[in-house]
Write a structure and sequence with these properties.
This protein is α/β, with parallel strands linked by helices and 155 residues long. The protein has a single domain, classed as Rossmann fold (3-Layer(aba) Sandwich), CATH 3.40.50. It has six helices and four strands, in the order βαβααβαβαα. A four-stranded parallel β-sheet has the order 2-1-3-4, with helices on both faces. The longest helix has 22 residues. The chain is globular. It catalyses: O-phospho-L-tyrosyl-[protein] + H2O = L-tyrosyl-[protein] + phosphate. This is protein-tyrosine-phosphatase. Keywords: Hydrolase, Protein phosphatase.
């Protein structure tokens, strides 16, 4: 089983969106049993809060189910537990590396590094600031599609 942890700043918008999008993709392909998928934050700002209403609204629009959850901050032990630690932007990556003390095993990447269609962005914009959950979803979906495809090929 491959263990994947998505990371963003607060764990209420982008990382939760990626968690539920990848879970949905894996389920539709009959692969749920092959993955453990979760999400966390680099900050403590939203600890205990549920997924942002804008993320829920976009997931509802796309027919993707989600569960009630509580934002949590990642910790150094996550590095040992998870096979893939995937951030949304450069700031997330810097903070992940600070929290876990480096990336000796090469587990840390950005979600759009996995995308087949690289597009013109390599960071996933935070809709908390932009308000654009559509753009965030498009990038998350593209990254998750590429990630799942590459993980399936690596089996």
């Amino acid at each position: 089983m491959k263990k994947i942890l998505f990371i963003c700043h607060g764990n209420i918008c982008r990382s939760t969106m990626a968690e539920f999008v990848l879970k949905d993709m894996a389920a539709k392909q009959g692969l749920s049993h092959e993955f453990e998928i979760a999400s966390a934050a680099t900050s403590r700002e939203e600890i205990g809060n549920d997924t942002h209403h804008g993320t829920k609204r976009k997931l509802d629009e796309m027919g993707i189910s989600y569960t009630r959850r509580k934002a949590r901050q990642m910790n150094a032990a996550d590095y040992a537990y998870y096979d893939y630690i995937i951030g949304m932007d450069d700031a997330n990556i810097r903070n992940i590396l600070r929290i876990v003390g480096g990336d000796a095993e090469g587990k840390v990447s950005k979600l759009l590094d996995w995308a087949d269609d690289k597009g013109d962005r390599d960071d996933i914009a935070d809709p908390w600031y932009t308000g654009n959950f559509d753009l965030t979803y498009d990038d998350v979906e593209r990254g998750c599609r590429g990630l799942l495809g590459k993980l399936k090929k690596a089996k």
